[in-house]
């Protein structure tokens, strides 16, 4: 007689309710910040700031981590977090791809198929396990006051700037043009093919699960996935491009480098007219930076609400050094790979970019190595 | 107040200070030349880029 495998249930730790703070003051401050952003740089930026707050609130509110989702499956065969990611991508995709096909002013996250994509995504996948956060994960943990992620962020900014600055040289290793699947094979075939592939991966994750408990509240994280998909579509509708993280970090790095005397005009990437114009403008005018700032605040508020803000930091000197180095590697490799978990994985696949799939395969392979590296460094599971 | 809370406070203070410094050193922003509130259904607005975009 076969014994049915029970559904995954939340661990007692995940189900426990920590001390919570009142939300009203932080929501009030959020509304004031939204009004200030809208007054200073316009309604589009204000709306994107609000979308960013939503991203941060959802990510921190349900502990939606791309990095942890992969690691939980690699280590414990717990598919919950990973399945939620696939759900978010599938839901965003069924709206985003038809929208982009119907409006030429909207664009997807279409990156080239380059050697740098393979190398960058593999290295990013490994480094994000050491840093315990990808682009969105690092930002939301910075927002909630995780000092380890705060140590990752400066390197991430510097690496994003340098990766973009060196990108032209990496592309000489070989690159094919971007492939937008909806343009190559049609909208409906792309949707059907990608849904089938996401479904196959989800089925494999479920079939090979081992864990019977999970660190997440399953209903909450699947609801979070649906909300992230909705916010991703809103980002596309408002900004005209899908959700991204790393460009904004690199832009901040370019501002710092320019202030320190680096000749941006002489660089192959930052010296382009569109980039120089963006560097001269306030960071608040950049569509990626403004969602990043909103994300930080949204995560801060959600963590206050959950009682998970400012967790105590306990790391050795070697681990702090690993955080700084991993940040630099994350930023650099994300630019070589044309995006992080958000720009390439979530936004790439959900807008039908072939590079998103290549990124996924290479980054997951990198994460297999990264989980071992994390253990070797003595970082918590 | 925990030490990590103090560091978080320092982070937010530094972030606000850097944004203010950026605002005063950046080219003056033309508040009245802003694009439409959303891109869908509007003429294309040239942006600087996305992390997935090829060199441009």
Tell me what you see in this structure.
The complex is a heterodimer of chains A (381) and B (56). Helices cover 71% and strands 2% of the residues of chain A. Chain A is mostly helical and 381 residues long. Chain A has a two-stranded parallel sheet. In chain A, strands 2-3 form a two-stranded antiparallel sheet. In chain A, helix 2 packs antiparallel against helix 3 and helix 16 runs antiparallel to helix 17. Chain A is globular. With 56 residues, chain B is mostly helical. Chain B has a domain at 3-27. The longest helix of chain B has 23 residues, at 3-25. Chain B is elongated. The termini of chain B are far apart. The interface between A and B is large, with 75 and 39 residues.
Number of strand segments of chain A: 4
**What is the residue-mean pLDDT of chain A, rounded to a whole number?**
93
Number of helices of chain B: 1
Unreliable spans of chain A are 1-6
Total number of helices of chain A: 17
Radius of gyration of chain B: 18 Å
Tell me the β content of chain A: under 5%
Oligomeric organization of the protein chains: heterodimer
Could you tell me which chain pair has the largest interface and how many residues each side has?
Answer: A-B, 75 and 39 residues
Largest sheet of chain A: 2 strands, parallel
- Shape by Cα distribution of chain A: globular
Taking all residues together, what is the mean pLDDT of chain B? 85
What is the N-to-C succession of helices and strands of chain A?
EHHHHHEHHHEHHEHHHHHHH
Kindly report how far apart the N and C termini of chain B lie.
Answer: 48 Å
- What is the string of SSEs of chain B from the N terminus onward? H
* Sheet with the most strands: spatial strand order of chain A: 1-4
Features:
heterodimer, A: mainly alpha, two-stranded antiparallel sheet, 17 helices, 4 strands, B: 56 residues, mainly alpha, 41% helix
Layout of helices and strands, plus pairs?
The complex is a heterodimer of chains A (381) and B (56).
Chain A: E1 9-10, H1 12-15, H2 24-41, H3 43-61, H4 66-76, H5 80-102, E2 113-114, H6 115-131, H7 135-144, H8 147-171, E3 175-176, H9 181-185, H10 187-207, E4 213-214, H11 218-239, H12 246-259, H13 273-280, H14 287-306, H15 317-336, H16 341-350, H17 354-376
Parallel strand pairs in A: 1-4
Antiparallel strand pairs in A: 2-3
Helix pairs in contact in A: 2-3, 3-11, 3-14, 4-5, 4-17, 5-10, 5-11, 5-16, 6-15, 6-17, 7-8, 7-14, 8-12, 8-15, 12-14, 16-17
Chain B: H1 3-25
